[in-house]
Structures are given as C-alpha cells and as structure tokens.
Design goal:
Blueprint: E1 8-13, H1 20-29, E2 33-37, H2 43-60, E3 65-69, E4 84-87, E5 92-96, E6 106-108, H3 112-117, E7 123-126, E8 131-139, E9 142-149, E10 151-154, E11 159-160, H4 173-185, E12 189-192, H5 198-208, E13 213-218, H6 221-224, H7 227-233, E14 236-240, H8 241-247, H9 253-267, E15 271-274, H10 289-300, E16 305-308, H11 310-313, H12 318-333, H13 336-344, H14 353-367, E17 372-376, H15 381-388, E18 395-399, H16 402-407, E19 414-418, H17 425-438, E20 447-453, E21 462-469
Parallel strand pairs: 1-2, 1-16, 2-3, 3-12, 5-6, 12-13, 13-14, 14-15, 15-16, 17-18, 17-20, 18-19
Antiparallel strand pairs: 4-10, 5-9, 7-8, 7-11, 8-9, 20-21
Length: 471
Amino acid sequence: MRRNRNAKIVATLGPASSTEAEIAALFEAGADVFRLNFSHGTHEGHEERFNIIRGLEKRYDRPIGIMLDLQGPKLRVGEFADGKVLLKEGASFRLDLSPERGSEERVSLPHPEIFAALEEQKDLLVDDGKIRLRVVRHGADFAETEVVIGGELSNNKGVNVPGATLELSPLSPKDRDDLSFGLKMGVDWVALSFVQKPADVAEARKLIAGAAAILVKLEKPNAIDHLHEIVDLADAVMVARGDLGVEVPPEDVPALQKRIIRACRYAGKPVVVATQMLESMVHSPMPTRAEASDVATAVYDGADAVMLSAESAVGKYPTEAVAMMERIIMRVENDPLYRKIMNAERREPEATAADAITAAARQVAHTISAVAIVTFSTTGSTTLRAARERPDVPILGLTPNAATARRLALAWGVHTVLTEDLHSFDDMVRMAVDMASREGYAVSGERLVITAGVPFGTPGSTNIVRIAWVE
C-alpha cells in the first residue's frame, strides 16, 4: 500500500463510513489517518471503528494512524419557550444565568465565565456568527445587548466571544471521560479543541502522559497570539478553519492558514489543514473548482495533511472524496512549481548536530540521485527532521515502535515500516537495503541515503549519515 505522494489524507469516520468494507475502501482510496470525532457517536461505536482499523493494519501490513478528536467545552444559550424566536435588528436582548425558558427579550446563558470576560461595545456571536449581539451593559450574571445582525435563533445554539480569553479549561468533564476511554483503547493522536493559551496544552499533556501524541486545533484567534509557544508544546497542529472563521473575518483566514503552516514547517511539527475542503462532495460526486483549488493551495504551502470531515463521515460519496483528494495532491506534487516552492521555503538548519546531519542527508540524496532517504528512529524525531527538509525523494521511516509508526502516518513524505530492533551499524545498513527493496523504493544498482542516531534508541540523537548501494 505504498502511496505515490507526500501530503497525507485524514478521513473522518461516521455513519457513512462505519463498516469494515467502508473503512477499507477509504484506506484503499488513500486515507492515511482516521479521525474519530467524539462530538458525535457513542464510545461503543468508536471502539468498533477502532478495532476495524487495527484489523485493517494487519490485513494490509501498514501502520494506520487513529486520531481522537475531543469536543471541547461547548458554550450555548438555553432553550426558548416556543423552541425559537426571531431577533430583530436594533432590538434589546438580555442574556443571564436564569434557567427560565427564553423569549424575544431574553434567554439563559449558563456560563458565568463569559460574563466575566465581556466588555462594553464588544460583540457576541451566536449560531456560528449568524446572530451578532453588541454588549451595552453587563455584570457578573447578565449582559444587556443590542441586536446588530438579527434572525431566527433556536434552542441551544453556540456562542462565541471574539477576542476574549475565557477562564475555562479546554477539557470539559465529557472530554476527560472521552480521553480516558480513548487512551485505554490506544489512539495515536489526541486532537485538542478550544485551546486559548500554552497552559491549555500543558494541562492536556499532563493528563495524556505520553500515551498519545497531541494535535492542537487552532480555532481561537487568541491562540494565534501565542502561536510559536503553542507549536513548540504541541506534537502537531490543525488549522481548524471552521471555528476560526467564526471569530475572525473570512478574509483573514487564508493569511492565518499560511502563517500557521509556516510556523509548523519551521518547527518541524506536522500541520493539518481542515474544514470544508471538499464540502460540496457531501452531496455531489464532484467538488467545485474552488474546492479543488483550496486543497491544492494547502499542498503548495507544504501542509503535511489535508482533512475530510462531513465528506467522509456523513456524505454520499466518502470514497470518491478521498480519491479526489488524492488526485489533487498528486497533480500538485507533479507540478514543477511545487518543488520550487518547497526548496524556496526551506529554512536554514539549526546549529545542532542532528539538524546538520539531516540537512546533509537531503543534499546528499539530491546530489547522488538516491532513490530514497531511510531513517531509523525509535521516537520518530529523526524521521520528522527528515520530513521538515521536504526532500525531493521519499522518506522510508523504519522504527521498532508500533506507536511511533502509527503517529508518523501523519507526517509529510514518510512511508513507515515496523521493523525489529537494531543492534549494530551493519544491521542498520542491511535492514535499510532490505526494506527499500521490499517496499518497492529501490532495485539493484540504486543508492540510498541512511540517517540514524547512534547509539540506537537514544531520542533526538541523529548523528550519522551513510550512503548504501542496493545489490
């Protein structure tokens, strides 16, 4: 199941993709990592999908990543006496802590942390920004607002507070329960929602305690103010454009996307672009040209992965959506301009032995026309360094650690293979040649560039580069 592309595909599972046959079809079409969205479904349903994926791993002899996406705290208004109201522009509307059912004059907002963060003349966004309310007066348990943009408002719609940092943990009681369940199952990635500041990532890392890698979803504008600190603390990042686009103007999202991708590429952390990438394929067998261009832009920018949400979870054409995404990626990566962009965007290596060795491996592979760079890594750090260089040859990532192999399924250009432990330098060369031949990367007479850290199993110790001939 070798992929002939570098950027990876994350596919969300749901009602349209729950059976073994459906999930296998998505994998064969090109999905590298599967997302379990814990905003929906039951623990039993997610566990069933998890077990199917692990079974497919054995069938295809290929590590597959599994991502648990936590819902995060949900800030919502209460219920209305008639189920919904019509808010008119210019009208007054009160939000308060009273549990009584709402009317056209008021509704419950059972979140004191919102009232604590409000400022006069600032806006509240309701129902994904469809309703806009401007704060006129507020206290510890209420806010008097003016309706700036009206419309129909129904029960339990979400509330956003642009520009405010709420004193709220990113892990609700539901999230903690879901996290405990997912870690017991053995998920590879935990996608963390509602991150506002670096301390939120640190809180999650303490709970996860190394049992899974952390992917931070950047969906709050105030998190962007701490972009580099958050990227440093995370194992990977997602540009969550849906929620991000509620709190910032739509015209700002493309620039933020590029800024986040660049920060992640410079840090050597995988970055995923998500939300509405092929949205029309929920109902149509073909995307719009604008959607195809959107996916292509993320690939040209050097994103490690692009993600399907509703398209593969509830859409009519889940397999076709994955196949379409793969075709777009391959078309971009075969464009000569793509390689020019990757080379132009490459950063100078840091002044460390590991970075110097990895940069040299990329240059050597290019100079001698090697067919692949082979990395040996227990933790994945050597392989991620190689991916950060965006080489013009594939990266064959060998590791004795199954968890590392699955996590690396998200990384740009990496084809992971689970191997036995190495005990000597000769073992390393032999294994590299054997696996490159077995996986279809090399034939007799071709050359490989090998990087590793010696002594083997020492995290972050990339310190050797070797050229090997395939006999």
